[in-house]
């Protein structure tokens, strides 16, 4: 089986993250993505954590350290392996959302072939149709056409595609049009306190029109209050995610 493995750079690295990656200190947690219609759990998103009580506990710090130590590729591969491995062992129902940056996905396909993630998932007990690649940092893609071809290769193997933290940037809209992702996650800026901001409500209504054109399901991120959940549900948003609906665990 072709595995997505840690590179020699991690074994040689002298930074604190490289040291952490060589041990058991990193682990995944899973946050539910909930149907706003009936409250059922639709999926879980895998999130990485470092040791409790340390400065490396949160994903933002870990990602910044990966960039500083030039270990983005190795770090994201490790996160994917950890997330899929534990999820396969848990045998939970529903889909699994796994984060991967656009540049790392392109690099992964180039170095390992398009079957790498699929063989990894199957080998760890997760069927491709239950896996959702949640694409991050897609606005930094220098060659959108090449990236779209890479996404087409992944989708042909049965994996669904989601765009993370969607805002209103021009390149984001172009990628939505090119990739036609099954799922788009609306950035929490547009959902936070939506019950108090008519402009945010109008923005989400505009995104709903685009989603209808491309047959895309929307996930509202950052739901932290009952009022915001009710507004989003009444708007017809299919799914939600946030601490009000469930914490990572």
Features:
8-stranded mixed β-barrel, TIM Barrel, alpha/beta, 249 residues, 11 helices, disordered N terminus, 19% strand
What does this structure look like?
The protein is 45% helix and 19% strand. It has helices at residues 8-12, 16-21, 59-68, 72-90, 102-112, 116-123, 144-155, 170-179, 188-191, 198-214, 226-235; strands spanning 27-35, 41-49, 95-101, 131-136, 160-166, 183-186, 217-220, 239-240. It has an 8-stranded mixed beta barrel, surrounded by 6 helices. The radius of gyration is 18 Å and the shape is globular.
Mean pLDDT, all residues: 88
Poorly predicted runs: 1-9
User: What is the domain total for the residues?
Assistant: 1
Helix-strand makeup class: alpha/beta
> Going across the major beta sheet, what is the strand order?
1-2-3-4-5-6-7-8
Biggest sheet features: 8 strands, mixed, barrel
Order of helices and strands: HHEEHHEHHEHEHEHHEHE
Q: What is the CATH homology-level superfamily?
A: EAL domain
Beta-strand content estimate: 15-25%
Indicate the radius of gyration in whole angstroms.
18 Å
Looking at the overall shape, the CATH architecture is Alpha-Beta Barrel
Approximate shape: globular
Distinct helical segment count: 11
């Amino acid at each position: 089986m072709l595995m997505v493995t840690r590179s020699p750079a991690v074994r040689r690295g002298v930074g604190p993250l490289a040291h952490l990656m060589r041990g058991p200190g990193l682990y995944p947690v899973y946050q539910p993505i909930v149907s706003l219609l009936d409250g059922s759990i639709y999926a879980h998103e895998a999130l990485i954590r470092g040791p409790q009580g340390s400065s490396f506990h949160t994903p933002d710090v870990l990602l910044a350290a990966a960039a500083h130590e030039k270990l983005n590729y190795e770090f994201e591969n490790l996160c994917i392996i950890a997330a899929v491995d534990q999820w396969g062992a848990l045998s939970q129902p529903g889909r699994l959302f796994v984060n991967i940056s656009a540049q790392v996905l392109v690099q992964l396909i180039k170095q390992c072939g398009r079957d790498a993630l699929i063989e990894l998932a199957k080998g760890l007990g997760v069927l491709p149709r239950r896996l959702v690649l949640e694409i991050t940092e897609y606005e930094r893609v220098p060659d959108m056409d090449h990236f779209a071809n890479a996404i087409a290769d992944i989708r042909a193997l049965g994996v669904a595609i989601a765009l993370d933290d969607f805002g209103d940037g021009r390149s984001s809209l172009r990628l939505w049009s090119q990739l036609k992702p099954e799922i788009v996650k609306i950035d929490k800026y547009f959902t936070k306190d939506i019950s108090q901001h008519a402009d945010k409500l109008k923005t989400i209504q505009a995104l709903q029109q685009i989603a209808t054109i491309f047959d895309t399901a929307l996930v509202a991120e950052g739901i932290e209050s009952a009022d915001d959940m009710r507004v989003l549900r009444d708007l017809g948003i299919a799914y939600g995610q946030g601490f009000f609906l469930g914490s990572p665990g």
